[in-house]
Amino acid sequence: MFLIAHGISVRTDLPVPEVIFWWAASIVLAVSFVALAVLWPKPRLEDRAWRPLPGGIGRVLASRVVEIVCGAIGLFLFALTIYAGFEGTQSTTANWTPIFVYVIFWLAFVPLSVLFGDIFRAFNPWRAIGRAVAGVARRVTRSELPEPLAYPAWLGRWPAAAGIFGFAALELVVSGGDKPETLAVAILVYSALTFVGMALYGVEQWTRRAEAFGVYYNLFSRISPFETRDGEVGLRKPLSGLPHVEQLPGTVPLLMVMIGTVSFDGFTSKRTWNSRSPDISQSFQDHLSLTPEHALELTFLLGMLAMVLLISGFYRLGILGARSVGGGFSATRLSREFVHSLVPIAVAYVGAHYFTLLLYQGQALAYLASDPLGHGSDIFGTAGTEVSYGLIGSNVEWYVKVAMIVTGHVAGLILAHDRAVALYRDAREAVRSQYWMLGVMLGFTLLAIWLVSESNT
Amino acid sequence: MLPIAHAGHWLTGIAYFLPVICFLVWLGITQLRERRARGGRGRER
Fold first, then answer.
1. Contact A446 B15 (CB under 8 A)
2. Is B23 in CB contact (< 8 Å) with chain A?
3. Which of A132, A212, A242, A313 has the fewest other C-beta atoms within 10 Å?
4. How far is Cα A224 from Cα B3, in angstroms, rounded to an integer?
């Protein structure tokens, strides 16, 4: 329930009715679908073409020195966030911790990953600590550490899905989930679980498959044209990292959680939710003898879960439709084969929903850097800086949001089409399977536009 | 009179979901055509 006012300004003067944007977005998707069917007969994103950055820049960027510096920065920010959470003022806007966690850590890394690749990996404090501890242990014992356990195949990305769901619950469900001290405790609990996982299964293995934020940002980074291979940063085709996402168990649920939790955040600002949730909460108080606070938390938790299940059901429906076309694939196989096409959609949802939050609350970093505890210090002389809410007009904000939604869904269509022409032997079958994916994309597009629109608010 | 009084709201709602309605109609027609085509091929054999 952090900084509920994601939409800062009220839009009243669009030059055309809002419904036109719904139609235009749908037409763009339909035209893209036809264009893909006609002009994209062979897979173009399945190859792993990559070339290093010129002039040895790629080696410098991926060098050990840069990795250590980035890891140290990540570790410093991690420690500061925990310290400020416990020692700073407990005001949400005057303390470093809530703004850093919910705005910088949670949102700013999304566009950065999409543009520049998996940079979170370099700053990941849990990975940095894990690697540092392993290095020290090797020096102290003067021997190689025992081999980690084999990561269970069935576990896949399930821990990451659970981690992202837990984080979203802290933000949207837990009463006082934006309090600095609550956040600091949550970080410590998550860190303890992460370090146990790393100790058992190895730092790299756990970071790659289970550490929620490492997995989350890695998925987004696969859209980027930048990729690090064999200790060198290089270039690849944009989007071409996604078809190579390992099809591990838990990947589909992770994407459903990513889209479903953001959808729920948007849905909580709608009249449909706000007119019914008090009654549901009241019935929990009456029948389960819960306190009003816990009844409300249970209502929000079930609401969020229901939204994730709704999104999952919708995707499943599209997959079952695609299966009916033929090709002899099981629904589970198709579900895993096409799930990477939902990553740009997840980006679109996050971007459209939190764009203004990042734009405006991100500015708070200027005064919080000078006074992270909210105790009146002025380290860099910027403590008096104020957030400027007039950076862009409300109409421009709407255009940007719609553009992000449409771009993300067209990218999803491209990925799904590319996979279909690689998967199906018959080109006609491939296109027919995509009728259903077009339906999925259209549904997700209109849902996303509705969630950021002012209708039903 | 109440349903008629609400018709304006329904029409607005339908306008928003017109793309979905169009898509479902198109999908239904396409599926029907393909089923008929498959049935026709089956009889030819």
1. no
2. yes
3. A313
4. 52
Tokens of A383: 């403590």
With CA atoms as reference, report the closest residue to A260 among A397, A184, A164, A194: A164
Candidates B16, B20, B34; nearest CB to A442 = B20
The answer to whether residues A99 and A93 touch, using CB atoms and an 8 Å cutoff, is yes
Chain A residues with CB under 8 Å of B29 CB are none
> What predicted TM-score, i.e. pTM, was given to this entire model?
0.91
Rounded distance between C-alpha atoms, residue B33 and residue B44, angstroms: 16
Residue B44 has pLDDT above 70, yes or no: no
Residue A324: predicted pLDDT: 87
Retrieve residue A118's tokens. 């998996």
Alpha-carbon separation of residue A138 from A133, A143, A145, A203 (angstroms): 9, 6, 6, 14
Per-residue confidence (pLDDT) for residue A9, from 0 to 100: 45
Q: Which helix (H) or strand (E) is A407 found in, with range?
A: helix A394-423
- Mean pLDDT per 10-residue interval, chain A, length 457 residues: 44 73 92 93 92 94 96 97 97 94 95 96 97 92 86 96 98 95 98 97 96 97 96 96 95 97 95 94 94 96 97 94 88 95 96 93 94 94 90 88 95 95 88 90 92 78
CB-based contact B20 A23, cutoff 8 Å: no
3-state secondary structure of A388: coil
Phi, psi of A179 (to 5 degrees): -75, 135
Contact at 8 Å (CB) between A225 and A53? no
- From the list A167, A407, A436, A225, the residue with the least C-alpha distance to A319 is A436
Angle at B32 between CA B23 and CA A320, to 5 degrees: 65
Tokens of A76: 């410093």
Res B42: pLDDT: 56
CB-based contact B19 A19, cutoff 8 Å: no
Chain A residues within an 8 Å CB radius of B22: 26
Torsion on CA atoms A71, A74, A79, A82, rounded to nearest 10: -140
Interface ipTM > 0.85: no
Judge whether A367 and A412 are in contact, CB under 8 Å: no
Q: At what angle do helices A158-172 and A180-201 cross, to 10 degrees?
A: 170
CA-based R_g, chain A, Å? 23
**Measured between beta carbons, which residues in chain A are less than 8 angstroms from residue B27?**
435, 439
